[in-house]
């Protein structure tokens, strides 16, 4: 995997990655899902939603200091009606906010900022209990009362956060020099920020800003999502029409325990049981896919493939002196490719 000097690698904006990351750092009772639409029906299907994570293309200011970058980033919030508040005021409102002080860590910092602001909940069904886990509880306790920059450094020093974050990076046996990165790749920087409800307001938690941003009051309960999506849509509106530079994720209560409880309950109307069973099947398939895909992310098969090719290049084909199995395979591939090209030229269908 390609690591920055800080020791943190880039990760994908895949909800399956975020869900397993939460599980492995000790968080219970939460999962992450894509929000493909902001229509009421879609939002209702994912309730209760506790936080949103917004991924967008971020254009870094050129030739500016870190302080100047923060000033420009803070000013951007005012364009969408946000109010940057002081450390004391945000802490008085119970808002946890840590700066991103390490390159490539924005996905995990946004996730931790979001989860730290989700109130733990005990449930009669223990599988539905929401808990931060020992690691986040210890980090929150140790950093109590500290400023956002210090909290960012504390998170950056967490070995569990770093190793779990890096474990989802694409494995590669090759190391690519940062100097070799194209100008286009350097320009295409993407950033994660979180939106959470707290004390009757929607808060934007952007690790590159000097503080938390308050976006006004919202209705109690699930009404905060409507306010948050309005803010996000307003932000999207500042980009050129048709831009596809965004991704929105919802941190919600874990679905499987709730669905299993509802299906087993005698209080659940029989008319809705089939739909609940279908939803449960979809969630179980998603869980299976998460384990499979994240397992592949953590596997580096390139070395094995290279070794197989080396062995094939050494082994000789019986009865064909001088020809290796690799050369034989390449020759067969060329023959098959030529046959398919000839068929296409003749207008024949190819399986």
Automatic annotation (TrEMBL):
Matching PROSITE patterns: UCH_DOMAIN
Keyword hit for Cell cycle: no
The UniProt record lists the keyword Hydrolase: yes
GO molecular function terms attached to this record: cysteine-type deubiquitinase activity
Residues with site note (Important for enzyme activity): 206
The EC number(s) this enzyme carries: 3.4.19.12
Chain positions of site Transition state stabilizer: 100
GO biological process: protein deubiquitination; ubiquitin-dependent protein catabolic process
Region named Disordered: 317-351
Record key words, sorted: Hydrolase, Protease, Thiol protease, Ubl conjugation pathway
Domain of life, source organism: Eukaryota
Reaction(s) catalysed by this chain's protein: Thiol-dependent hydrolysis of ester, thioester, amide, peptide and isopeptide bonds formed by the C-terminal Gly of ubiquitin (a 76-residue protein attached to proteins as an intracellular targeting signal)
Domain UCH catalytic, residue spans: 7-253
Active site (catalytic residues): 106 (nucleophile), 191 (proton donor)
UniProt record similarity statement: Belongs to the peptidase C12 family.
Protein name: Ubiquitin carboxyl-terminal hydrolase
Organism: Filobasidium floriforme
């Amino acid at each position: 995997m390609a690591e920055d000097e800080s020791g943190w690698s880039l990760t994908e904006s895949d909800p399956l990655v975020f869900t397993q990351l939460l599980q492995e750092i000790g968080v219970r009772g939460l999962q992450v899902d894509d929000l493909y639409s902001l229509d009421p029906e879609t939002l209702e299907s994912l309730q209760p939603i506790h936080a949103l994570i917004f991924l967008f293309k971020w254009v870094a200011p050129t030739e500016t200091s870190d302080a100047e970058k923060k000033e420009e980033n803070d000013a951007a919030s005012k364009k969408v009606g946000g109010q940057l508040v002081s450390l004391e005021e945000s802490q008085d409102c119970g808002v946890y906010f840590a700066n991103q002080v390490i390159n490539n860590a924005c996905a995990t910092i946004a996730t931790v900022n979001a989860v730290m602001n989700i109130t733990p909940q005990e449930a009669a069904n223990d599988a539905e209990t929401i808990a931060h886990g020992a690691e986040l509880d210890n980090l929150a306790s140790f950093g109590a009362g500290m400023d956002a920059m210090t909290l960012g450094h504390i998170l950056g020093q967490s070995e569990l956060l770093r190793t779990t974050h890096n474990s989802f990076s694409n494995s590669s046996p090759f190391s690519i020099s940062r100097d070799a990165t194209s100008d286009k790749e350097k320009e295409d920087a993407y950033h994660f920020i979180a939106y959470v409800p707290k004390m009757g307001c929607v808060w934007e938690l952007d690790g590159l800003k000097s503080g938390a941003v308050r976006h006004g009051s919202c209705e109690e309960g699930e009404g905060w999502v409507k306010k948050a999506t309005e803010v996000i849509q307003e932000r999207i509106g500042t980009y050129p029409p048709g831009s596809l530079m965004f991704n929105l994720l919802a941190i919600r209560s874990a679905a499987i325990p709730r669905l299993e409880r509802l299906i087993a309950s005698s209080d659940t109307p029989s008319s809705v049981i089939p739909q609940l069973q279908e939803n449960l099947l979809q969630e179980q398939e998603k869980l299976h896919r998460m384990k499979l895909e994240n397992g592949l992310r953590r596997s580096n098969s390139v070395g094995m493939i290279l070794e197989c090719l080396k062995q094939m290049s050494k082994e000789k084909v019986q009865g064909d002196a001088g020809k290796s199995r690799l050369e034989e395979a390449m020759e067969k591939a060329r023959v098959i490719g030529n046959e398919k090209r000839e068929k296409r030229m003749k207008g024949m269908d190819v399986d």
